[in-house]
Write a structure and sequence with these properties.
Blueprint (H helix, E strand, L loop, with lengths): L8 H7 L6 E5 L11 H10 L5 E5 L24 E6 L12 E5 L1 H8 L9 H12 L3 H23 L3 E2 L5 E5 L5 H9 L14 E5 L3 H14 L9
Parallel strand pairs: 1-2, 2-3
Antiparallel strand pairs: 3-4, 5-6, 6-7
C-alpha cells in the first residue's frame, strides 16, 4: 500500500514474474475505502504479464463519487487476462444470499465454468437479484443516502480530531491511536458492533455506514469510549 492507503500498483506490477498466477486489486479497496484511478489502473493492466489473471474486485463500485475512478469494465476485451467481479451483497443489500458475477473474456469465463458447483445458487436468490435490478431508483437513492451519512460522520470525526481515511465505500476507517481491539470490545459492551481488527492496520477501526440515527448512536458511543483528540490527519 502507498502512504495514503491505496494499492501501490507500480510496485505490484514490478513484483510480477513468470510464476505469478493471480493479481488481485480491490477497487474501491477493502478495508481502506480508497480507489485507484483510471490513470493508474490502465497502465498497470498493461504491465501485468498476460500469463497471470488480473482479478479486479468492484464490490463497492456503486458508492464511488470520485471522477478519477473508472470501472475495469472499460478494459474487458482489451486486456485478455482481466476478470472483473461484482456482488449483490453491498448496494443491493443481499449479503446473506451470496450472489455475485464476473465479467471477462469468453476464454476466461469458460475456464471458470469448468470449476462451477452445480448448486452454487438457487431460484429464490436469482429472483431476488432480478427484482433488485428492476428497481431502477434503488441504486442512486441508496448511494446518496450512504454517502451523505458518511460525509456527515467524517465531518464530525474532523471536529473531534480523529484521523480517518477518505473513503469511497460504505464504510470508514478511523485511527484510534492504539490497539483497536479494546475499543472494539468497549463498543460491543455498548451494543455497538463494528469491524474486526485488521493485522496490517492494528490501530484502525472499520465502521460500516448505517442510517443517520445509527451513526449518531455510534458516534456517541465512540466519544464515550475515547476522548476527543487533538486535530491530526491520516
Amino acid at each position: 500500500m502507498t502512504a495514503d492507503h491505496r494499492h501501490d500498483l507500480p510496485r505490484m506490477a514490478a513484483a510480477c514474474g513468470e510464476r505469478t498466477g493471480l493479481v488481485y486489486v480491490c477497487n474501491p479497496n477493502n478495508p481502506t475505502g480508497t480507489i485507484v484511478t483510471r490513470d493508474d489502473l490502465g497502465p498497470f493492466l498493461g504491465r501485468v504479464p498476460k500469463t497471470a489473471l488480473v482479478l479486479v474486485d468492484e464490490a463497492y463500485h456503486h458508492f464511488v463519487e470520485d471522477a478519477r475512478y473508472a470501472s475495469a469494465f472499460e478494459w474487458v476485451g482489451k486486456i485478455p487476462n482481466l476478470l472483473v467481479v461484482r456482488t449483490f451483497s453491498k448496494i443491493y443489500g443481499l449479503a446473506g444470499m451470496r450472489l455475485g458475477y464476473g465479467v471477462g473474456t469468453l476464454e476466461t469465463i469458460e475456464a471458470m465454468r469448468r470449476h462451477r458447483i452445480w448448486s452454487n445458487t438457487n431460484a429464490s436468490v436469482l429472483e431476488a437479484a432480478l427484482a433488485s435490478l428492476e428497481d431502477a431508483g434503488h441504486v442512486p437513492r441508496y448511494r446518496r443516502a450512504i454517502n451523505e451519512t458518511r460525509r456527515w460522520l467524517c465531518a464530525e470525526l474532523d471536529k473531534d480530531g480523529r484521523a480517518h481515511i477518505p473513503s469511497e465505500a460504505n464504510f470508514v476507517m478511523i485511527d484510534v491511536g492504539s490497539d483497536v481491539e479494546p475499543v472494539i470490545g468497549a463498543l460491543r459492551e455498548r451494543h455497538l458492533l463494528v469491524g474486526r481488527k485488521f493485522p496490517s492496520l492494528p490501530t484502525w477501526l472499520r465502521v460500516s455506514i448505517g442510517t443517520p440515527e445509527e451513526m449518531k448512536t455510534f458516534l456517541a458511543g465512540l466519544r464515550a469510549v475515547l476522548p476527543r483528540l487533538e486535530i491530526r490527519t491520516a
